[in-house]
Write a structure and sequence with these properties.
The chain is mainly alpha-helical. The chain folds into two domains: 176 residues, Catalytic domain of cyclic nucleotide phosphodiesterase 4b2b, CATH 1.10.1300; 130 residues, Catalytic domain of cyclic nucleotide phosphodiesterase 4b2b, CATH 1.10.1300. 66% of the residues lie in helices and 0% in strands. It has 16 helices and no strands. α2 packs across α4, α2 runs parallel beside α5 and α11 crosses α12. The radius of gyration is 22 Å and the shape is globular. The protein binds zinc ion (ZN). The site of zinc ion (ZN) has 7 residues, from α5.
Length: 346
Amino acid sequence: MYTNCSTTIWNVHCTCPSFSPYTLSNDEKVLSSVKLIQSFSGVTKCEVDDIYRFTLTVRKNYRAVPYHNWTHGYSVAQTIYRLTWECDHFCPLEKFSFFVAGLCHDLDHRGTNNQFLVTSCASLAALYSTSPLEYHHFNQTVSILQQNGMNILKNMSSEDYKTVLANIKHYILATDMAKFFGTSKKLNTQATNGTFNWANPEHKLLLSSLAMNGADLNSTALPWAEARLKTKELFDEFYAMGDSERQAGREPIALMDRLKLDEQPRTQVEFLENVSIPCLKLVNQFLPEAQPYLDHSFENLDHWRELMKESEKKRACLIRMNAEDMESPVSMPKIGGVEKAKSFRL
Ligand SMILES: [Zn+2]
């Protein structure tokens, strides 16, 4: 349906507040990416065939995991495009770097996190002392760019080439959430005491990192029905990781333990309160395009709080039933262990 749309239409379409990156088919996501990269042709001067080959190869190098897949990569690229498009403080080279970094930021993700790679002594963890996944995603990006007919940077001046590659590296590495609290603390201090300076490259990199984090968390900032669906996919991936932990003889954390389904609302409330909302609030001070995402995040927080209350009521009821059962001389069927966990269907 979108095949004949021009670059301009795609640009308008993807920056519209009601646009959802999750409504496009996999091919439409490729087409949208090509059109949006083409919108930077003034700085890249790259050929359209190279853009198609690059984008299709990026798609191919996302694995079929439940959450960190091609759809997630595209959604982050579209979100960072929307957050930065109107901002005159970012130059076209930076905006182009943001889009490519968003598209590539989780390349070859295996559905497991850095902690899992370290504890399971995976080879990637041995290769990089910090942020092993993010370094791998960046290196995958460079590998694709080095392939014949896929280098969408090849017609840039060597100075621009170096700048874009450095930007892409910084933006992809910033998606390691382990860095989030340190980065947000620094930017928050600058925002509060009024020392943030757009002309200071270090200040701008801090904001760029937070903007990437905000874009990476876009699935928590969608309208409720979509956010719920994306949360289910995320938990499918978490639980598969938890299963691997258990198989290896380690106890998974509650977030990744499918026997603790009732913990889902609490974890979402905590994540929104401590990470997503503070991140978007801060980004919104500099990039007003973050406002609709922030609004949805607050609405979703209310929904998750309601579900958390229901979950707590169910848990209290089960504890009471079990206590009564212990006291009763007539034995009732017991609800415990795995069965108890299964009774929490969200
Ligand atoms: Zn991501």
